[in-house]
Structures are given as structure tokens and as C-alpha cells.
Amino acid sequence: MKTQVSIKVIIAGRSYSLKVNKEDEEHVIASAGLLNKKFQEMKILFQSSDSQDHLAMSAIMNMTDQFKRISPDELLLEQLSLKLDSVNIELMKVMKA
Questions:
Q1: Within a domain: residue 97?
Q2: Quick one: CA dihedral 70, 74, 76, 81, positive or negative?
């Protein structure tokens, strides 16, 4: 069984308490730091007063950077996975009706 630890991260000025696997702790903290960095960049680039807009743009930019680092085959598999997830959600809706 994996050991979990409680950590706090601050994202866009808000504190979040999380339980993560011990081996993921440094990655989660680093991810929050990167997200905050992008958040600040988006705040400067886009003069909107809505923090949610800045946070959404930060998330998009971070995911774009991540996709640039993966191979075309991995990207294709990820796109297929997303489409399958979408179809699965629709099927579950139909089954519940």
C-alpha cells in the first residue's frame, strides 16, 4: 500500500489541502509552482480581472507544453482515449435514462 501524505499548495492565491502518494509529493508541489508561474504570466498578458480566466489559460498553456513533449503516437492515443471517454459518458447517460 502506498503511503499518503497531506500537503497544502497555493494556486492562484487560494490554499488547497491535498492527500497525495508520498512519491508524488514533490511532483505535485512543483506542478502547483509551475501553474502559479503560468497564472502570473497570463495575468500580465491578459488584463482581464477574472482570475478564473487566467487560471484556465494557464491550464491550457501547461497542457499544450505537455503535449509538445510527447510523441505523435502518444498524442494520437491520448486523443483516442479522450474520444472514448466522451462516448462512454454518453453511453452512461443513455443507460441511466
A1: no
A2: negative
Cα gap 33→35, rounded to integer Å: 5
Report the alpha-carbon angle 23-76-82, nearest 5: 70
User: Grid coordinates in use for 37?
Assistant: 508561474
What is this structure's pTM? 0.64
Task: Name the residue among 42, 67, 45, 66 with its Cα closest to residue 55.
Answer: 42
| 69: helix, strand or coil | coil
| HSE-CB of 2 using CA atoms within 13 angstroms | 9
Tell whether 67 is covered by a domain: yes
In a domain, 89, yes or no: no
How do residues 16-32 score in pLDDT, each as one tens digit? 999 999 999 999 999 99
Residue 34 lies in a domain: yes
